[in-house]
Amino acid sequence: MGYHAMAINQNTLTIDGKDVYFEQGQTIMDAALAAKIYIPHLCHYPGLPPSGNCRLCVVETNGKSVAACITQAQAGLRIHSNTPELNAVRKTITQMLFVEGNHICPACEKSGNCKLQAMGYYLGMHEEHFHHFNPRRALDASHPAIFLDRSRCILCDLCVRASREVDGKNVFAIAGRGADAHLIVNTDSGKLGDSNLDRDDLAANICPVGAIMHKQRGYVSPIGQRIYDQQPINEIALGEHVP
Ligand code: FES
Predict the structure, then answer these.
(1) Which of ligand 1's atoms lies nearest the C-alpha of 43?
(2) pLDDT digits (tens, 9 = 90+) for 183-241
(3) In this predicted complex, what is the ipTM?
(4) Where are the chain's structural domains?
(5) Pocket test for ligand 1, best of 48, 56, 66 (most atoms within 8 A of CB)
(6) What is the torsion angle, in degrees rounded to the nearest 10, for the CA atoms of residue 96, residue 99, residue 104 and residue 109?
(7) Which residues does a 6 A CB cutoff place in the pocket of ligand 1?
(8) Which top CATH class is 105-230?
């Protein structure tokens, strides 16, 4: 056996029966996306460090459930991802995310471009199932170009990581724990308008839902021309990466 074949054997796992080659240091999610295999995810974004918050990426290996985005790939792992049981768990998590915030799709300008909504479609979610929390959380319209609606925040932490790791600004943070967890702005006033967030920052453009929105752009894309009108989330996700 040549060196190349040996290396491939040492760095290969399977996902739903398919052989997947990985590089040392990659997570199961990294390896899957590199092999163009979609594992559902909301808080993961290729190119940003993972946070393991949303648990949508749950997969099964060796009889255990693990989060694919924070679990290292290892040779010989046999991973099951696309099973009815795992997709049922993902659907329940998605339903809980819907009721925990105010996700009223017909009245939200993110509709059609929203990953939570697209995930609901992908998982065949037809109703929220749980009672709505109807939270009343602080809105922040103090920034000239960006609007913050915390009642739609799913605490994925993507804006926090994007601002810190890519924009180098550290504009956002998550404060509190459990049911008290909420998105805060790192300024003395706590207002977005006092931060140095720019319209073009990754943190201003990475929100998967309608929590961080650009002003003066609501409903600019007609129905039929929005991201997930054209392609489902499992296809769009395979092309995403931090620019
Ligand atoms: Fe892995 Fe959110 S994508 S926990």
Answers:
(1) 2
(2) 999 999 999 999 999 999 999 999 999 999 999 888 888 889 999 999 999 999 999 99
(3) 0.98
(4) 9-82, 105-230
(5) 56
(6) -50
(7) 41-44, 52-57, 67, 69
(8) alpha beta
